[in-house]
Amino acid sequence: MVDVQLSDAEKTYIIHGAQDNLREDGRGCEDYRHLEIETSVVSTTSGSAKIRLANTEILVGVKVELGETSPENPDKGRIEFFVDCSANATPEFEGRGGEDLANEISNMLARAYDCPSCLDMRKLCVVEGKKCWIVYVDVLLLECGGSLFDASSIAVKAALYNTSIPRLTVTHDEGHTELELSDDPYDVQRLDVYNSPCIVTLSKIGHSHVVDASQKEEACCLARLMLAVTDKGCVTAMKKEGSGSFDVSSIEDMLETGKKVGQSLNKSLMEVLVSEDRNMKKKYMTGYLR
Question: Which one, of 282, 39, 36, lies nearest residue 160 by Cα?
């Protein structure tokens, strides 16, 4: 993460504030900062989204291509994550400075989605054992202001919701399989992401824990727990970071907080995405021919 230098007085103020459920920006320990979401921002992709969470800005583009099924899962499609840390986000990302962080985020996203209930990959199989849709998810970190894992997962879910896959017709003739893509740009299938997870990072500050830690709060955190949580409160992936340790009671409290916050986050996100999608369709419906 991006290093922020704080004085002892600043650290004490932040730690005591977290213990009193009153953080430096006025939030409670379980509150996220203001979040802005915009979809369909890159016309050359199958789906895209850009989010801004305080000073963190992330762009996600999704490309869907036909490819070969994997031998391990011949009846399923595939999803692959790629993360890039822009050098403009922070000087620390210049050269290969952001590679480790990019790998950590992509690995966490892959683990979070490696669950049958998150995304039905069987619907992406075109011809069993031969052809399937491969979903390539590209995540670009444009600006860093804390909560990069959380913001990345939110942007990924929004971009996947926005993704359109062309309708395919499969015909079998004398042992040959032919695939025909629909010419109608509106004849598409959408991904069901209602149960896809969002990552909630709980940072241990003093004897308390907070979600959506700012960069200053991250500088006071010795350990944090990342949970990928679905809308039903199911944890699909978990990761602990930092040199500090947790006792059993802390882990139990953080799990309960993460599940509750994750469910609320998923619900609010889907409400916004459905509303924006509905408004977008109304926009397309207007015109002199209607």
Answer: 39
| CATH number of the structural domain spanning residue 38 | 3.30.230.70
Q: One digit per residue, pLDDT tens: the chain, 290 residues?
A: 556 677 888 888 898 888 889 888 889 999 999 999 999 999 899 999 999 998 899 999 999 999 998 999 999 999 999 999 887 766 667 666 678 888 999 999 999 999 888 999 999 988 888 888 999 999 999 988 888 999 999 999 999 999 999 887 777 777 677 777 777 777 788 999 999 999 999 999 888 899 998 888 888 888 899 999 999 999 999 999 887 778 888 889 999 999 999 999 999 999 999 988 887 765 554 444 44
Query: What are the DSSP calls for 144-196, one per residue?
Result: -SS-HHHHHHHHHHHHHHT-EEE-EEEEEETTEEEEEE-S-TT-EEE---TT-
Does 256 reside within a domain? yes
Note down the domain range covering 110.
8-280
Q: Phi and psi of 199, rounded to 5°?
A: -90, 130
> How many folded domains does the chain comprise?
1
Q: Which two tokens stand for residue 137?
A: 């998810």
Q: How far is CA 99 from the centre of its chain?
A: 18
Q: Evaluate whether residue 181 is within a structural domain.
A: yes
1 occurs within a structural domain: no
Token pair, residue 239, equals: 């990761």
